[in-house]
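Example 9 (inverse folding). The structure is encoded as follows.
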């Protein structure tokens, strides 16, 4: 067998291991989901070796989708870490053989404190399975390795079953993208759903504002000094009348030559500029900019006065795209 054929064989074996789980799904899966859903505590996931690594991922997926969970190493559990477990918790134990000593040794503790146990095992007749409230069969026909002993297809099956539990739970909880973002505030989705225009806009001294009677020389200085490529034209009360951009300056010089510098902001400004509310999401502001092929939006307050300016660079620098 060449390398590519080996890879194909492995992927087929693992794909068959996952698809084979479908035949094993019955009311036990629904009972497992119901136990996890009704739990008043946390979900404690445990497993040794490769199963432990899968358990860490399952615990992480549960936690990030609205089900409080953590991983507990079964060997450390017997040396004090059981103190992290309460009577309100539920345990998910992962063992292909169902006879892993470190997990079996925890069974008396779980029974003593009436902690419900869900097992993911490839041996439904094992000690672990018999002691469980619900056993989910994750047995596979064969491992993907030529020796048939290296945990490959079996760990993939356990991982897939863990994902199935997590997704079923998030659906049962009505968990949505806003909930997900709240647990991932630094992720791209969190940024898109939580960062608002007011969080990024330029205000106060950094806000370029000129009067409609300001000569264009004054407008150029204001635009250049504030480095936003724009100046808001506002009346004495602060109401927005229009904007002058660096693009307006280039086009004005080309059109009027030296006479341009004798003109006022009112002569050059673009009236009714595109605006965005400070309470709008920054992602929405970016969408407006892209739609109109502009790089800046004015942010008015409730009295239509200039409260700020948001630049496309401010949005992109925060990882919103």
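The amino acid assigned to each position is listed next.
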């Amino acid at each position: 067998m060449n390398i590519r054929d080996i890879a194909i064989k492995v992927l087929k074996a693992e794909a068959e291991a996952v698809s084979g789980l479908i035949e094993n799904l019955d009311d036990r899966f629904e009972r497992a989901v119901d136990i996890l859903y009704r739990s008043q505590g946390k979900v404690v996931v445990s497993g040794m070796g490769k199963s432990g690594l899968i358990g860490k991922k399952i615990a992480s997926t549960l936690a990030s989708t609205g089900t409080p969970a953590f991983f507990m190493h079964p060997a450390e559990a017997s040396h004090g870490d059981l103190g992290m477990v309460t009577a309100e918790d539920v345990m998910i134990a992962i063992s292909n053989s169902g006879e892993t000593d470190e997990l079996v040794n925890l069974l008396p503790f779980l029974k003593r404190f009436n902690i419900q146990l869900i097992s993911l095992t490839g041996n439904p007749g094992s000690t672990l399975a018999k002691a469980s409230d619900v056993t989910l069969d994750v047995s596979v026909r064969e491992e993907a390795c030529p020796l048939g002993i290296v945990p490959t297809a079996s760990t993939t099956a356990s991982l897939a079953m863990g994902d199935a539990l997590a997704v079923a739970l998030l659906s049962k909880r009505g968990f949505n993208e806003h909930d997900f973002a709240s647990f991932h505030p630094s992720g791209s989705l969190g940024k898109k759903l939580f960062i608002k225009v007011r969080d990024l806009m330029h205000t106060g001294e950094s806000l370029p504002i000129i009067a409609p009677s300001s000569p264009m020389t004054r407008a150029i200085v204001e635009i250049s000094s504030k480095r936003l490529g724009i100046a808001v034209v506002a009346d004495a009360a602060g109401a927005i009348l229009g904007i002058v951009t660096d693009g307006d300056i280039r086009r004005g010089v080309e059109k009027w030559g030296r006479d341009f510098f004798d003109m006022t902001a009112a002569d050059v400004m673009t009236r009714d500029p595109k605006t965005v509310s400070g309470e709008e999401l920054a992602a929405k502001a970016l969408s407006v900019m892209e739609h109109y092929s502009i790089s800046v939006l004015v942010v008015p307050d409730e009295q239509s006065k200039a409260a700020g300016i948001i630049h496309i660079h401010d949005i992109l620098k925060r990882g919103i795209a």
